[in-house]
Amino acid sequence: MSKHTITDVDLHAYVDGRLAEKRRAEVADYLAAQPQAAERVNAYIAQNRALRDLFNPVIDEPVPERLRVLVSPPPVADRPARAHLSRWSLERVAAGIMIAVISGVGGWAAHGKYQPAQQMARMPTLPRQAAIAHVVYSPDVRRPVEVGAEQEDQLVAWLSKRLGTPVHPPKLGALGYELIGGRLLPGNSGPVAQFMYHDATGQRLTLYVSTENTSNHDTAFRFAQEGPVNVFYWIDGQFGYALSAGIDKAELGRVANAVYEQLEHK
Amino acid sequence: MESSAILAVVPHLRRYARAMLADRAAADDLVQDTLERAWSRFSQWQSGSDMRAWMFGIMHNLRIDQLRRPALVTRAIEEEDFEMPTRPTQTDRLEVRDIATALQQLPKEQREVLLLVALEDMPYAEIATTLGIPVGTVMSRLSRGREKLRLIMEGQSPSTKLRVVR
Q1: Among A28, A134, A229, A240, which is disulfide-ready with A210 (CB 3.0 to 4.6 Å)?
Q2: Number of domains within chain B
Q3: Tens of pLDDT along B3-53?
């Protein structure tokens, strides 16, 4: 490259201090003779400085706890245990369905007896609340959601902000359910979120996400029936999830498993 | 030790995400997603390679995934199509604009490159690798981004972005 041919790339490399000494001097000579180019280059240098001044303070901010915990590798026992929980849950769901089919409601009552009493005491509110929210909002033709899926970014940002923790609607397109949108609802002590989906036939399904769980017990899938609404629900850390729809248990279980997988391995 | 390498990168990811998204919570969400994905793919990291470039690449891909959703397909009109053969005369108009606001008016592809250059001081070739684009594209995005930012800061550029339906 001739020393007289100063390209746009040279000017940017000059701005960013990426030129060797000799080339740098050549560009400096060029700029001395080209006021318009010099003006641009000075503006670009000022941009770099302004951006650093504006955002460098972030570097010195303390890293939030939720990020700090992710700096270390996840506990070795954690992942296999969760995967196992997932498979175990499925088997359990399958077993539950068998029992229900064979013995009707009695099967589920018996199934329930094997849950620790403490969990039973706090559990019923989640599926019940979710089912009520489902029957209230899912029949609404014109305003089923507050924020539609076409504004998913805003929906996610808004609900995450209100719940104080990131919440994302799982993608259920592979199972034939598309996101309609979501809304904020009152829970027991604060806001909870509801995401609504529908399939090609218009069948609606809602995912109720609560962050109100304060106990440390995760649970496997549970099933509840509230009138015409079937609900699969589970607890994961602070989160309580409940998937509700007026569809049959096996189909809903399939969707619930997909939701669970996505939330676990996001 | 990879944990200390990651720990060193996290503040950089946060700074970049904050500048990209202009929203503190959304930025930290993105960093969190990036860390989670990084651990889930940790076997793909080549020990000894640049942790920063790898993590920034993951963050970039995550953003692409998040932005990719069914919508009316639009194409940003290239700025060259509308470039006016006039030169700004800023001696008579020195208008100080808020650079944070101006930055958000850049197309995200240009913002991305500009921030990796300005904040991370990342070499052009490394940016190309991180974003999965040719170096020539890095340079043209940098060039357009800087010029557009300059014009916005001087109050010369229309802030409306024209889009055409393909």
Answers
A1: A240
A2: 2
A3: 788 888 999 999 999 999 888 888 998 999 899 888 888 777 777 778 899
Q: Which residues of A touch B (CB under 8 A)?
A: 8-9, 12-13, 15-16, 18, 36, 39-40, 43-44, 47-48, 50-52, 54-56, 58-61, 63-64, 66-67, 70-74, 150, 152-153, 157, 160-161, 166, 265-266
Q: Per the structure block, which two tokens stand in for A192?
A: 């909870």
Which of these three, B36, B67, B98, is where a domain ends? B67
Coil vs helix vs strand at A72? coil
Give the tens place of pLDDT for each residue, A69-115. Answer: 888 776 654 444 444 344 344 444 455 444 444 444 444 444 444 44
Measured in angstroms, the CA of A74 and the nearest CA of chain B are apart by 8
Q: What's the rounded Cα separation, in Å, for the pair A86 and A151?
A: 32
- The reply to whether residue A160 touches residue B153, judged by beta carbons under 8 angstroms, is no
The pLDDT value recorded for residue B19 is 94
Evaluate if residue B70 carries a pLDDT over 80. no
Q: Which residues contact A27 (CB under 8 A, 6 or more apart)?
A: A6, A10, A11, A14, A19
Same domain as B152, residue B98: yes
- Do the Cβ atoms of B31 and A47 come within 8 Å? no
Contacts of A8 in chain B (CB under 8 A): 139, 143
The alpha-carbon gap from B12 to the nearest alpha carbon of chain A, in Å, equals 6
> How many residue pairs bridge chain A and chain B with CB atoms within 8 Å of each other?
104
pLDDT of A135-186, one tens digit each? 888 888 888 899 999 999 999 999 999 998 889 999 999 999 999 999 999 8
Q: Which two tokens stand for residue A187?
A: 């829970």
Is the Cβ pair B25, A54 closer than 8 Å?
no
Amino acid making up residue B144 = R
Please give the full DSSP string across B78-129, using - where no structure is assigned: PGGGG--S----TTS------HHHHHHTS-HHHHHHHHHHHTT---HHHHHH
Q: Best of B20, B64, B67, B117 to disrupt the A interface by mutation (most A CBs within 10 Å)? A: B117
| Secondary structure of residue B44 in the 3-state scheme | helix
End residue of a domain, out of B67, B89, B109 = B67
Q: Are A166 and B62 in contact (CB under 8 A)?
A: no
